[in-house]
Amino acid sequence: LLDLEELDADARSIAAGRTGRLKVGCFPTAGTRILPAALSDLKRSHPAVEVTLRIAEPAHTIAMVESGELDVAITYEYAALAHTWPASLKREPLIDENLVFLSPSAMVVSETGEIRAMSADADWISSGSGTAGESTTYRICADMGFVPNITLRTEYYDLVTEFVAAGLGVALVPALGIVSHDRVNILPVQSKWAQRSVSVVY
């Protein structure tokens, strides 16, 4: 009878969300900038909940939430590449962030921050081929009247920042992708496509 009472108490705790497992998906930048504080809050309010984490891009984590492999995912959507969300999922907006332009500190920055004049002939650094970040870079540059010469690609914005600081090129990155860097110029981008929304999907 005691075992049954304990089982009943465990089942009630799981049903109430006080204990159990939470399977979370997250893209790398949010994993660094958003998730630590969120999980810290969860640990304080629900100390018995066990969290497992999967780091991947939204194209993967959204499908995993839909299949039940994940309970929740932090995802993003670029303004230039809006897509339809599965009807079986709910989405709660977290933040809207702007994209910023990065250039080496040695590159002269005009008072008006005219990105086209600074970067039309520069080498560019982008996220991986075929990614939303790369497509958005092409879209923004097309609006400015040129095609970026992308010579280096990486999925990690911390690496993009270091590559820019080393003088290997210029880049467009989401604001979450960079906090500050003393060897990089950070400029706002005047484009309706220079935005990204971050959401929780479950």
Report on the structure:
- By secondary structure, the protein is an alpha/beta fold.
- The chain is 34% helix and 31% strand.
- It contains seven helices and nine strands.
- Strands 1, 2, 3, 4, 7, 8 and 9 form a seven-stranded mixed sheet that branches.
- Helix 6 links the parallel strand 5 and strand 6.
- The radius of gyration is 21 Å and the shape is elongated.
- The two termini are 37 Å apart.
Short description:
Helix content is 34%, strand content 31%.
Beta-strand residue percentage: 25-35%
Radius of gyration: 21 Å
Low-confidence stretches: none
Largest sheet, strands/sense/barrel? 7 strands, mixed
How many strand units? 9
SSE order = HEHHEHEEHEHEHEEE
Shape: elongated
Tally the helices: what do you get?
7
How much helicity do the residues have? 25-40%
Mean model confidence by pLDDT: 88
Structural class: alpha/beta
Keywords summarizing the entry:
202 residues, alpha/beta, seven-stranded mixed beta sheet, 7 helices, 34% helix, 31% strand
Topology:
Layout: H1 2-16, E1 19-26, H2 28-33, H3 35-45, E2 48-55, H4 58-67, E3 72-78, E4 91-104, H5 115-119, E5 123-126, H6 132-144, E6 149-153, H7 157-165, E7 171-174, E8 184-188, E9 195-201
Parallel strand pairs: 1-2, 1-3, 5-6
Antiparallel strand pairs: 3-9, 4-7, 4-8, 4-9
